[in-house]
Amino acid sequence: TEKLMDELVVEHGFDEQYINSIFAKVNYLPNLIDSISKPAEKTKTWPEYRAIFITPARIAAGVLFAKKHQTLLNKASQETGVPVAVLLGILGVETYFGRILGNYKVIDSLYTLTVGYPPRSLFFRKQLINLFYLAREQNIDIQTVKGSYAGAMGAPQFIPSSYRSFAVDGDGDGSIDLFYNWDDIIMSVGNYLQVNGWQNQENILVTANLADSLIKEYASKGLKPQFTIAELKEAGLNFSTTLSEESRAQVIELEGNDAKESYIGFHNFFVITTYNRNVMYALSVYLLGKNIEPTIK
User: Fold this and answer.
1) What pLDDT does residue 41 have?
2) In whole angstroms, what separates CA 232 from the centre of its chain?
3) If you average pLDDT over residues 160-170, what whole number do you get?
4) Average pLDDT over the chain, rounded to an integer
5) pLDDT higher at 30 or 59
6) What is the mean pLDDT of residues 7-29?
7) What is the pLDDT of residue 93?
8) Per-residue pLDDT averaged across 230-258, rounded?
9) Catalytic residue among 2, 94, 255, 293, which?
10) pLDDT at 70
11) Per-residue pLDDT, 42
């Protein structure tokens, strides 16, 4: 801890008294180490994971949210190229449209994971340092701000480095508030995906009826599509898309998939996984948004 405090003062120029006063009140939270070791993405099958997010209640909440913020959603979609359904899917999966922002003090979470979780200690140390910068830049109270157990904040659940890199001032008021300002929140989600490579107007995924042998051979949980569309079609996978033959594609492997069909993800599907590195997450975002969208037209 002392080394970290020294670094904040000497290398990053924070006031020593300020740093001492904050670290005097920081709490170590041992239960966090269990949470981060067993996230839902690693322990649940696809039907179990899907059942958390694709529910009538969450879809209904999304419809109300979408009607209330339709103008903003359309504006963000036009400016970033990210479809309204995907913006809705992310906000719905991340925080139930701003209802569940997390109950952990971000400073406690990041401190705990820095000192108590060696596999990703360097990552969380970087986030903790970013949190101090963010607090100064956006006038956030570092001692009270709350988020997820992994230090993600606000309605879009940005970790501190993402908040500093991808969050945008959607309404031009000079500050970026991802907790209560929906202009900033919705534009920031669109900006995040756009900067991470979203291709406007391109397909995200298709469903296809595939033979089990083909699924075995061509499916992956990986986050970089291994094949081109041409290669998959040559192998006998039948699906239709407006994308060029050279575009990348991947059959998505889902543990316990009980649907009669398989999913084939394209470049934009894998851009969604930059938000949370898991194919079940990206598919839940896609399906939740798709379920909300028809009712708001």
Assistant:
1) 62
2) 28
3) 97
4) 93
5) 59
6) 94
7) 97
8) 92
9) 94
10) 96
11) 72
CB neighbour burial string for 101-128, b if at least 16 within 10 angstroms, e if fewer: bbebbbbbbbbbbbbebeeeeebbbbbb
Q: Token pair for residue 13?
A: 């120029």
Distance separating alpha carbons of residues 292 and 129, to the nearest angstrom: 38
Give the torsion through C-alpha atoms of 37, 122, 91, 76, to 10 deg. -160
21 contact partners, CB below 8 Å, separation of at least 6? none
Enter the tokens of residue 64. 């109300």
The tokens of 218 are what? 């061509």
| Statement: residue 40 has pLDDT above 70 | no
Picking from 263, 262, 285, the residue whose alpha carbon sits closest to that of residue 272 is 285
Quick one: tokens of 260? 């009669």
**Per-residue confidence (pLDDT) for residue 138, from 0 to 100:** 93
Amino acid identity for residue 131 in this structure:
L
Active site residue 253: no
Average of per-residue pLDDT across 156-182: 96
Higher pLDDT, 169 or 222: 169
Secondary structure string (H, E, C) spanning the chain = CHHHHHHHHHCCCCCHHHHHHHHCCCCCCCHHHHHHHCCHHHHCCHHHHHHHHCCHHHHHHHHHHHHHCHHHHHHHHHHHCCCHHHHHHHHHHHHCCCCCCCCEEHHHHHHHHHHHCHHHHHHHHHHHHHHHHHHHHHCCCCCCCEECCCCCECCCCECHHHHHHHCCCCCCCCCCCCCCCHHHHHHHHHHHHHHCCCCCCCCCEEEECCCHHHHHHHEECCCCCCEEHHHHHHCCCCCCCCCCCCCEEEEECCCCCCCCCEEEEEHHHHHHCCCCCCHHHHHHHHHHHHHHHHHCC
Whole-model pTM?
0.94
Q: What angle do CA 39, 133, 137 make, to 5 degrees?
A: 115
Report the distance separating Cα 251 and Cα 266, nearest Å.
Answer: 9
Residue written as token pair 């990210």: 82
Ramachandran region of residue 203, left (φ > 0), alpha (ψ -120 to 50) or beta?
Answer: beta
